[in-house]
Design goal:
With 273 residues, the protein is an alpha/beta fold. It has a single domain, classed as NAD(P)-binding Rossmann-like Domain (Rossmann fold, 3-Layer(aba) Sandwich). The chain contains nine helices and eight strands. Strands 3-2-1-4-5-6-7-8 form an eight-stranded mixed β-sheet, with helices on both faces. Helix 3 runs parallel beside helix 4 and helix 5 crosses helix 9.
C-alpha cells in the first residue's frame, strides 16, 4: 500500500484517479480548494481516502500544506485550469502557469525528500502548441491567449518531468487524453459552451478511462521521464509515447527550473528557507 497525494482529486480525472487508487488499497489524500466537494467525492469512494485543503494559486497555502505532510510515497500533480481569461494568482502569476505549473513546481520542491517513490504530473497533448517564454512566463509583454497560456503550462510540466528525471528523481508525465470533465466550467467562449452542452461531448472519454495513465504511472517500472499517453493520441489505453524534441530540451528544462525556483522561492533540497 502506498500513500498517495492527488491534487484536484475532488472532480474529473483527479477524482477517478483517486477512486481507482483507493479501491486498489492505497491510502489516498485528496488535496484541493473545495473541501465540501472533496468530502462528497471521498464519500463515494471505497478505501482509505483523506481530504486536505490546498490552493495551488496561493504559494503561502502550498507551503502550509507541504509543512503538514510527514511523508508521501507518490505525488500526483493533477489539478489544473483551462481556457480562462487573463487572471493572476495570489502571487501575481498568470493563472494557467501559476496553477498548472508553478503551484505544482513549488509543491513538489517543498515536499522534496518527503516523496519516497515518484512524482507524476498530468500532461496534455496540447503541449505541442506550447512555447516557453522564459523572459515573460506571465504574458506581461505579449498578447494574451488563453490557449497559448495553457499550452505553455503543459509544456512546462513536461520539461519539469524531464528535469526531475535528470536529477535522479523518479518522475512520469501522464496524459489523460480527451476527457468528459468539468475542467472548462469557468472558461469563456467556445470552450465554456462545449463544456456545458452534453450532446457535443459524446466523443470524450469517461473520467475513469482518462485516469488510466495516472494509475499506470503509480506502479510502472518504465524508465523515469517516460510520457504515458493514450494509444490513439486522445483515446485508448495508455502506453509509452515519444514526445517532441522541445519537451526533452535539457537546456530549456534547466533554465525553466532556475526561473521557477526564483519566482516561487522554492527549490528541491532548498525548500525550507
Amino acid at each position: 500500500m502506498k500513500r498517495i497525494i492527488v491534487t484536484g482529486g475532488n472532480s474529473g480525472v483527479g477524482k477517478a484517479t483517486a477512486a481507482a487508487l483507493a479501491a486498489a488499497g492505497h491510502h489516498v489524500v485528496i488535496a484541493c480548494r473545495t473541501i465540501p466537494k472533496a468530502e462528497q467525492a471521498a464519500a463515494e469512494m471505497t478505501g482509505a481516502v483523506e481530504v486536505r485543503h490546498l490552493d495551488l494559486a496561493d504559494l503561502a497555502d502550498v507551503r502550509a500544506f507541504a509543512d503538514s505532510v510527514d511523508m508521501v510515497d507518490v505525488l500526483i500533480n493533477n489539478a489544473g485550469v483551462l481556457g480562462l481569461p487573463y487572471t493572476t494568482t495570489v502571487d501575481g502569476f498568470e493563472v494557467h502557469m501559476g496553477t498548472n505549473y508553478l503551484g505544482h513546481f513549488a509543491l513538489t520542491c517543498l515536499l522534496g525528500d518527503k516523496v519516497t517513490d515518484r512524482v507524476i504530473s498530468v500532461g496534455s497533448a496540447l503541449y505541442v502548441f506550447g512555447r516557453i517564454h522564459l523572459d515573460d512566463l506571465h504574458c506581461h509583454h505579449r498578447r494574451y491567449s488563453k490557449w497559448a497560456a495553457y499550452a505553455q503550462s503543459k509544456l512546462a510540466m513536461m520539461l519539469f518531468t524531464e528535469e526531475l528525471a535528470r536529477r535522479g528523481i523518479r518522475a512520469y508525465t501522464a496524459d489523460p487524453g480527451m476527457a468528459d470533465t468539468d475542467i472548462t466550467r469557468d472558461s469563456t467562449g467556445m470552450a465554456g459552451w462545449l463544456g456545458r452542452h452534453t450532446p457535443v461531448r459524446f466523443h470524450l472519454q469517461k473520467p475513469a478511462a482518462a485516469a488510466r495513465a495516472s494509475v499506470l504511472a503509480v506502479t510502472t517500472d518504465l524508465p523515469s521521464g517516460t510520457y504515458l499517453a493514450p494509444r490513439f493520441n486522445q483515446w485508448g489505453m495508455p502506453r509509452p509515447t515519444t514526445v517532441r524534441r522541445k519537451a526533452r530540451d535539457r537546456d530549456i528544462a534547466c533554465r525553466l527550473w532556475a526561473v521557477s525556483a526564483e519566482q516561487t522561492g522554492c527549490d528541491w533540497g532548498k525548500s525550507r528557507f
